[in-house]
Every structure is written in structure tokens, then in C-alpha cells.
Amino acid sequence: MTAMSSTTDRAGADASVGAEDRPPGAWQADLGPSMTLASPDIAHQPLIAAGLAPLLGGALLECYPSDITEQDPVNEPALPETLRDAMSFIHRHAAEDVSINAVSAAVHLTPRAVQYLFRRQLGTTPTEYIRRVRLERAHRELLAGSPPNVTVTQIAQRWGFAHTGRFAVLYRQKYGQSPHTTLRHMTAGS
């Protein structure tokens, strides 16, 4: 068995194990074969070196998922004031049953004009923006992990996600892990 097939077999066996289930230092063991391949001789082999970079980056991201969230443009001065007002309204009322009609009434525009403004300036709809704000708030609450007996279902429902399964799908798409994993890590660390 060659070094490459050994590496492939081990990677395939570990693929079903999530980063949260792995012992500390497991990422170092995973990088061992890559480090062997990354010898000075390999640096002169552009095809091999180019193939290693995404693997190394992927391994690091898998082991150390980011909790950095994108900045919300609500205070961006380049955006029209009406749009900033609508975004601010959404942020202030995210925990309530806010609708596009409520947003449009708050900024004295028609619902269609608000939709157009969001689409043109942000590349999204007001409904998607509301969902994004609520998902971010739920994420913050999961990261806080308190009170200790709080459940993902309670947090999801508090932020307007009636279907926990749909919330979990949206959460995983945005943050790269399940909401249960985030909450479990936060409560385990407390």
C-alpha cells in the first residue's frame, strides 16, 4: 500500500466523524500526510502543491469552525436613508411578528417599493433579510448557551422559526454546523 492510498483510506474512514466528535489534536494527525507531502521537493511540483492548499484549508476550517458573523450594513452611510430606516425597524422588531407591511408602513412606502429597495440595494428581499436577522439572533443565543436548560426548539421558536427542522437546515447552511452542536459546545464549556 502506498503512502497516498493509506492517506486516502484514513481520510475516507474519518469522513463520517464530525469535528466535534474527534479527540483534541486529531487535526494534527490528519495533517501529518499532508506535511510529508509538503516537503521542499513538492514545492517544485505545482500540480501537487495546488492540490494541497484546498485540502489544508478545508481541514483547518473543519477543525476550527468560525463564529465570526458578517457585518450587517444597517449603519452603512452609502445606503439610502429609507433603506437604513427599514433595516433598523427590522432589527428593533425582530422578536415580534414583523411583516413587510409593517416595515413599509414604518418607512412610509408601499410594500412593492420596499421590496424593490431591498432587491436593488442589498440583493435580497425584506423577508429574507428578516429571516437573516432572526437567524443571527438565534445564533447569538445559542452561543451564549444560557440558561443551561434551554433547548434549540425554544430558541428557534423565540425567533420565529416554527419548524425546528427548517431552522436546523438554515442554521447549518449559514454556520456550517447544527444548532444542537453549537449549543452543546457552549453548555459543555460553561
**Broad shape:** flat
Oligomer: single chain
Class by helix and strand content? mainly alpha
CATH class division of the domain at 133-189 = Mainly Alpha
CATH topology of the domain at 133-189, anyone? Arc Repressor Mutant, subunit A
Question: Explain this structure to me?
Answer:
With 190 residues, the protein is mainly alpha-helical. Among the domains are: 81-127, no CATH class; 133-189, Arc Repressor Mutant, subunit A (Orthogonal Bundle). Helix content is 64%, strand content 0%. The chain is built from ten helices and no strands. The protein has helices spanning 3-14, 26-37, 46-63, 81-92, 100-106, 111-122, 126-144, 152-158, 164-175, 179-189. The longest helix is centred in the last third of the chain and has 19 residues, at 126-144. It is flat, with a radius of gyration of 22 Å. The termini are far apart.
Layout of strands and helices, then pairs:
Elements: H1 3-14, H2 26-37, H3 46-63, H4 81-92, H5 100-106, H6 111-122, H7 126-144, H8 152-158, H9 164-175, H10 179-189
Helix pairs in contact: 2-3, 5-6, 7-8, 7-10
